[in-house]
Write a structure and sequence with these properties.
With 264 residues, the protein is α/β, with parallel strands linked by helices. It is built from ten helices and ten strands. The strands form two sheets. It has a six-stranded mixed β-sheet, with helices on both faces. Strands 2-1-4-5 form a four-stranded antiparallel β-sheet, covered by helices on one side. A hairpin with a 2-residue loop joins strand 4 and strand 5. The model has no long low-confidence stretch (mean pLDDT 89).
Length: 264
């Protein structure tokens, strides 16, 4: 579902601020894989996600989504293939609109608009059933403005909106980093439910090693713009933070320096 071939990205080339962010990354995600991505600050994980999303174009290499070459497509043109949830809970929803209005916009994404009433009764019933399934306490608050929701409720709603149209690829950009631990755990549970139910190919960047180990079926670790660890299956299930740190140090020849990632 995602194929990346030798992509490279350098910021501020030829200046004293030159930074090689991606240095020849190759990656294949099969249909339905849930991959978590971890790395120290500046390792390239967010740059890789933004390169996939088209936030900026790569200097070299190719990116394919479902065998479609998107390398030179702008961000808004790639959006037809991608669902994305950002770190900031304020992004991805319209705060002055009701819950059901936000869901309706996401539900009709890419469809032709007619002159029918804004939200049909069958749509409203679908929204209520969907919200109830994920135990957000929002199924009876469809006419509540999204700006009045908590960060966790809003982030969970954004997840539902990003996946209503079954994107080919779901990008999660440290989507629990701004939440308290209890709320973050709830949002990750909702994430697992949605991904597993729909079989979505998912790429989740996280700053938290424990979350990277506990979720998904494959773990990537980046360092200096390269993938240095790729762990999946039974091998991933046996991982601990300590063993992952040992493997990082062996592969990179240096110590992992991000305390927040280690401590969770």
């Amino acid at each position: 579902m995602l194929r990346i071939e030798n992509i490279k990205k350098t910021f501020n080339p030829g200046t004293i601020n030159e930074k090689i962010a991606l240095n020849g990354v190759d990656l294949v995600l099969e249909d339905g894989e849930f991959v978590t991505v971890i790395g120290s600050n500046g390792a390239g994980k967010s740059t890789l996600l933004n390169a996939i999303a088209g936030t900026w174009l790569v200097d070299e290499g190719k990116i394919f989504i479902d065998d479609i070459d998107v390398t030179n497509l702008s961000e808004f043109k790639r959006a037809q293939y991608i669902g994305r949830v950002f770190q900031d809970p304020m992004m991805g929803t319209a705060s002055d609109m009701w819950i059901e209005e936000n869901l309706a916009l996401a539900h009709r994404r890419g469809r032709k608009r007619g002159l029918a009433p804004g939200i049909m009764p069958d749509e409203r019933a679908t929204f209520k059933a969907l919200l109830k399934e994920f135990d957000l306490g929002l199924e009876d608050r469809l006419s509540t403005k999204v700006g009045l929701l908590s960060g966790g409720q809003r982030q969970a709603l954004t997840l539902i909106m990003a996946t209503l149209q079954q994107p080919k690829l779901l990008l999660l950009d440290e989507h629990t980093a701004a939440l308290d631990p209890k709320t973050a755990a709830k949002v990750l549970d909702v994430t697992e439910k949605i991904v597993n139910k729909s079989g979505l190919t998912t790429f989740m960047v996280t700053h938290n090693m424990r979350d990277a180990i506990a979720h998904g079926d494959r773990l990537l670790m980046l360092n200096e713009g390269k993938i240095i660890l790729d762990i999946s299956g039974e091998e991933k299930k046996k991982l601990s933070v300590e063993s992952l740190l040992e493997r990082f140090e062996k592969a990179s020849g240096e110590e992992f320096t991000n305390d927040a990632a280690i401590l969770g």
